[in-house]
Q: What sequence folds into this?
């Protein structure tokens, strides 16, 4: 665990990860809070609640690149404070908005959601050396997995004991506190050797949004398409077996395995290609469809869990490698949009597969989506020329000599 101690010893890293965890946990809980409000507060059906969640998700997906571009030009603190103000207005007004207006407001709130994840990823790329970066991104991926486990669960528990209005206000307050905390920390988004990156201006998109970056974004989309499908397939399998009450246990095992996988991967001496990790994740997901009851399903999802955080880690690391410093915010925003689109589409694809076949078909559809993205990413990455990560060959991000300059070829498998 020496590598993790070194990362956490980087000045400002521990508080950044702590405050970011608060913000991301609240953000992962926002759709559940709005669902509980529409169903319990407005006494409407789940289809109506799904409409609000879809509006919020669409806003997040479209807003990622927009906010990233603003971060590149205006800086993180300005964008964080602006989005915090929007979130204050939205969450305070949720209990007084009629459903129709709530739909539009949710879209606007998603469009201007606090970019906690994007800022954290950019800061990690700027604050760490080449030897620390993969370990730091592994911690960030583990943080994300924990937020998905904790956030929605806390909302469900609170909704059973207090008003849905209060729950919505609580989630909003946590988002605001997390965003304001990151703004207060104001982490650096460019390393010392990148401080002049903005002076030269933004490079044209065709220079950095090439085959290599599209390969990574495709695999980011495929990863979350697969992951959102796994959750639905687990529920469908256990419902057919009459064991739906065990779904929480299976999902918890899956989350714990992902955390363990992320920590193990971050401590490995060398990275693995993104396409290989995603392709393996697809294969073990298909195999999970063979399980028919909750004990075997717990065993089956361990393999998928162990590969989840490592896959997300390599995607984040590859984006930071391929994006020049002056457009890293926009590139990270595109990554967030790809993740959001995958989450939105995955449950639909797997839902259709389950409806027209059997629950095992859900695992097959999710796994095949991951395999298709891995194959596409592999083919695209082979067309991308290898480029070094640092703008100064032979130097790492902190300006110190880099004995092993990292190129995108190793990360993508080119």
A:
């Amino acid at each position: 665990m020496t590598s993790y101690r070194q990362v956490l010893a980087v000045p400002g890293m521990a508080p950044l990860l702590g405050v970011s965890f608060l913000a991301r946990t609240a953000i992962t809980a926002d759709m559940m809070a709005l669902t509980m409000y529409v169903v319990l507060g407005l006494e409407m059906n789940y289809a109506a609640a799904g409409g609000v969640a879809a509006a919020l998700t669409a806003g997040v997906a479209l807003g990622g690149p927009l906010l990233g571009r603003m971060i590149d030009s205006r800086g993180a603190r300005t964008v964080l404070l602006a989005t915090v103000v929007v979130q204050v207005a939205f969450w305070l007004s949720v209990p007084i908005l009629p459903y129709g207006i709530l739909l539009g407001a949710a879209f606007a709130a998603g469009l201007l959601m606090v970019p906690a994840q994007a800022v954290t990823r950019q800061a990690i790329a700027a604050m760490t050396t080449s030897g620390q970066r993969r370990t730091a991104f592994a911690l960030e991926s583990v943080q994300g997995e924990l937020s998905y486990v904790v956030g929605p669960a806390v909302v469900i528990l609170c909704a059973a004991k207090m008003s849905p209005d209060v729950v919505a206000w609580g989630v909003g307050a946590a988002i605001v506190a997390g965003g304001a905390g990151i703004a207060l920390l104001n982490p650096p988004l460019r390393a010392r050797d990148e401080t002049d990156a903005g002076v030269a201006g933004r490079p044209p998109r065709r220079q950095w949004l090439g085959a290599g970056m599209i390969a990574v974004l495709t695999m980011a989309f495929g990863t979350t398409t697969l992951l959102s499908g796994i959750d639905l397939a687990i529920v469908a399998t256990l419902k057919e077996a009459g064991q739906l009450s065990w779904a929480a246990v299976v999902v918890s095992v899956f989350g714990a395995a992902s955390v363990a996988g992320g920590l193990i991967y971050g401590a490995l001496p060398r990275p693995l290609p993104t396409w290989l990790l995603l392709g393996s994740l697809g294969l073990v997901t298909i195999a999970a469809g063979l399980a028919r009851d909750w004990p075997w399903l717990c065993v089956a999802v361990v393999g998928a869990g162990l590969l989840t955080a490592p896959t997300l880690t390599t995607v984040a690391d590859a984006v930071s490698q391929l994006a020049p410093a002056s457009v890293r915010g926009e590139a990270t925003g595109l990554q967030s949009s790809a993740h959001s689109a995958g989450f939105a589409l995955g449950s639909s694809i797997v839902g259709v597969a389950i409806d027209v076949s059997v629950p095992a078909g859900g695992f097959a559809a999710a796994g095949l989506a991951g395999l298709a993205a891995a194959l596409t990413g592999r083919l695209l990455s082979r067309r991308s020329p290898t480029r070094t990560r640092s703008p100064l060959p032979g130097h790492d991000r902190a300006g110190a000599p880099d004995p092993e300059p990292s190129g995108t070829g190793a990360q993508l498998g080119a």
Notes: The chain has a mean pLDDT of 86.
